[in-house]
Design goal:
The complex is a heterodimer. Chain A is about 30% helix and about 15% strand. Chain A is an alpha+beta fold. The two termini of chain B are about 20 Å apart. Chain B is an all-beta fold. In chain B, about 0% of the residues lie in helices and about 55% in strands. The interface between A and B is medium-sized, with 31 and 27 residues.
Amino acid sequence: MTNEEHEALLEAVRVSSADWVPGHTSLTDLEPEERRLRLGYNPGPDEPSLQQREKRATARAMMEAALIADAPAPPVDVDWRSVDGQNYVTSIKDQGPCGSCVAFGTTATMESRIRILQKAPLSASNGSALPDLSEAHLFYCGNQAADRCVSGWWVQPALAFATSTGVVPAACFPYRSDKQDCILCDNWQSMTTKVDSWQQITSATAMKQWLATKGPLITCFSEYADFYAYTEGVYTYTTGEREGGHCVSCVGYDERKQAWLCKNSWGTRWGLDGFFWIAYGQCGIDAMMWGIESFATIYTPPTRRRAVAH
Amino acid sequence: MTVLVTDVDRSSTVSVPLSEEVVLELEENPTTGYRWTIETTGDAVKELASTYTPSPAAGIGGGGRRIVRFLATRPGTTSIRAALRRPWEQPDRSINQYAITITVAGAVDDE
């Protein structure tokens, strides 16, 4: 970059009131072609183009700004296991040794959102009418990878499957962790719960507002070697290697703890009966989360009528 | 030279020269809570390091490989046993076991 180009850039930043300061760096002195070679991200065949990503990011930022401006300040704490004494969080599940956490985080979030929309907490008279959803359907039918349990998955394709195909009740395709084939029960098409709309949220304030008003969120984070040893308290990274990405359902937060409350899928013997607190900003936990706004269909099994003797 | 042992060497006996390194590589997915715990019986080899390498192509929840390096420190035999389990669960709840015997030959030059 020549001095003239640098001066022009300084002026452009000043005029636009942008909050960053340009300077000479190791990259600005490179030829344009060499500089382009150092740009990392290249969207895959099924991903939006760079231009589409920019448009979506701008629209999303505006939407989030509107959401934050219109909504009241989020409360000090939220815990969907106890809202007005009612529990909207379904039981802790166990993914076993299969890398299916994306499916577990997604179905857990769907289950809670359905219960909140239907005003059907677990203990209510209508609480048992809503079935838990099939992580197996989402993971073993929605994930097209050859070795799904080893390769893991991503949240957006999981939500896309939950939107286009939907997810059947767990009883229609019970989950096992030993690399199942996609084999569903008879008439499964009539038993699906389909997502209608969902949002990706990238601001912590918007995440808290969503949690306070709409329900849990899907979230993913970098898992380090010390995480498995968590038993209680607020987790912060202390030591060990980064071992990969993990996905869970965020079911609350507490401003006094400065932490998110999450539902894991490692059974009830781990952590706080399967749940954990993680400090704001730790391990990318709040870099982005996904919320489910509405459903196109919510499957409720037909009520069995008791036979009456005459 | 390094001697590499993997899942295909399960339950076998492998002979290595003195002072050689033995590298044990096993598939692992710690994002599920399951990881290999290693135990050795005998002092022919000494564990140097245990590291985990995620697969670069893995998505969220994807796995990788546990790599445990041993050094053949003296002539004799060492049994290496590995169990894939969650550390907070009982040891008998492991879902996979691996065993290998390492025989370290004596150094001829010492005679």
